Amino acid sequence: MQRRDFIRLIGGGVVLAAGPGGCAEAPDARAAWRNPGAAEYDPRMRALSWAILAPNPHNMQPWMADLSVADEVTLHVDPTRLLPVTDPFNRQIVIGCGAFLELLRMAAAAEGISAEITPFPDGEPQPVLDGRPVARVRFTPGGATADPLFAQVLSRRTSRVAFTDLAPRGDLLEGVAEAGQTPGVVPSFTVEPTLVARLRAIAKSGARIEAHTSAAQTESAERTFFGAHDVAAHRYGISLEGPTIEVAHAVCLLTQKTLAQPGSWAFKQSEAFMDPLADKAPAFMWLTTSGNSRAEQVAAGRAYVRLNLAAAAEGLAMHPWSQALQEYPTMASLYGEAHRAMAPEGGRVQMFVRVGYVESPVRPAPRRGLAYNLKRNPNA
Ligand SMILES: Cc1cc2nc3c(=O)[nH]c(=O)nc-3n(C[C@H](O)[C@H](O)[C@H](O)COP(=O)(O)O)c2cc1C
Asked: Do 369 and 344 sit in the same domain of this protein?
């Protein structure tokens, strides 16, 4: 145990002390969720302040917006914020860009501005992204009406917790799937016990394979932060917070290194955490596209955030479970099984999520803030 963790008090008592910098002012990890865009003059900046609240893989927030052309946003991906092991072809990163673009469009529409999105205007990079933009968005005043789902942006969450036993009604899920309708993307769901059991098993196996694929587990561990101070200092990645986490982190039981080490306490805890989440999943939804073009991935992201918002409107919690859809060698056989289960007629499953109810809503995930998502003009 490191010396900083405990301070011995005069008189014999002991208190747990803050980690390094614990008493220093840390940025508010959730400031982006309060009055997005309220202080901005430029309508593009206002819309971008909402767009950065989009769901995105591992909360990497890889978006870079170039505002150098008047009335346009050109969206790039920050090449330092990818997931090369678990997302080798950047498919999930592009889905996160689709979600970002849909919120950008909705935020502009809420002001009556139409935001016309052209995905990959300079062509589709394959097999991995290159420097070409993901989208160009033209802002034109007028011609847009507010989307009712926009009202849910601040209450949308990724609920990485156990759901209650209550299964969502089929007609409710039907409505959520309908709200997720986006050209080129087919939303599906099931509450049917046999298929739910098969999908629970796929979800569990996906988590296990990923945990035992060293490079994949290390990639995730290196993007996980523990305790309020660490979370506020980074404001991206997966945030683990709460009294037990703080203590386990302070005594070095729970660190990025131990989380990546099979057999460690942290590794066993993370495995034990996932199984009940899958075992209690009362329903699943998924999104399928016929091919796997970049434009289809953008469309899947737009559809996913709509689904997540529509679920929030119905008081439903949602949690993506992407491992079985990932394209690295140790996942190949489960990838096949996931596609046989969810897309028996063919097509590419782009998102796979569990849906249900939570006892109490989870906190919003951190965001770094819009300043980190603006592409700087090197000549400025
Ligand atoms: C393409 C994609 C894949 C995702 N896969 C997972 C996943 O496998 N497991 C998980 O817990 N969350 C997953 N998420 C959710 C993100 O981790 C989440 O959006 C991010 O941490 C930000 O949190 P928020 O959605 O609450 O704002 C995924 C999101 C996207 C867009």
From this structure: no
Which atom of ligand 1 approaches the CA of 55 most closely? 19
Q: How many domains does the chain have?
A: 2
Q: What's the 55 CA to ligand 1 centre distance in angstroms?
A: 6
Give pLDDT tens digits for 195-233: 999 999 999 999 999 999 999 999 999 999 999 999 999
One domain for residues 75 and 121: yes
Question: Same domain for 324 and 297?
Answer: yes
Check whether residue 62 and residue 128 sit in a common domain.
yes
353 lines ligand 1 (CB under 6 A): no
Residue of higher predicted confidence among 14 and 218: 218
Residue 354 CB–ligand 1 contact under 6 Å: no
Burial 297-323 (b: 16+ CB within 10 A, else e): bbbbbbbbbbbbbbbbbbebbbbbbbb
Long-range CB contacts (within 8 A, 24+) of 251-255: 251/1, 251/5, 252/1, 252/2, 254/226, 255/226
70 alpha carbon – ligand 1 mean position (Å) = 32
Question: What is the Å distance from ligand 1's center to 166 Cα?
Answer: 23
Contact 248, 375 (CB under 8 A): no
Mean pLDDT for 264-281 is 94
| Ligand 1 atom index nearest CA of 157 | 26
Domain that holds residue 282: 170-222+260-356
For residues 303 and 213, state if they share a domain.
Answer: yes
Token pair recorded at residue 134 = 């993901």
Check pocket membership of 237 for ligand 1, CB cut-off 6 A: no
Closest CA relative to residue 202, chosen from 333, 14, 43: 333
Q: Is the CB of 158 under 6 A from ligand 1?
A: yes
Q: Is position 41 within any domain?
A: yes
Query: Are 190 and 174 members of one domain?
Result: yes
97 and 217, same domain (yes or no): no
pLDDT, tens digit, 9 for 90 and up, residues 96-149: 999 999 999 999 999 999 999 999 999 999 999 999 999 999 999 999 999 999
- pTM as predicted: 0.93
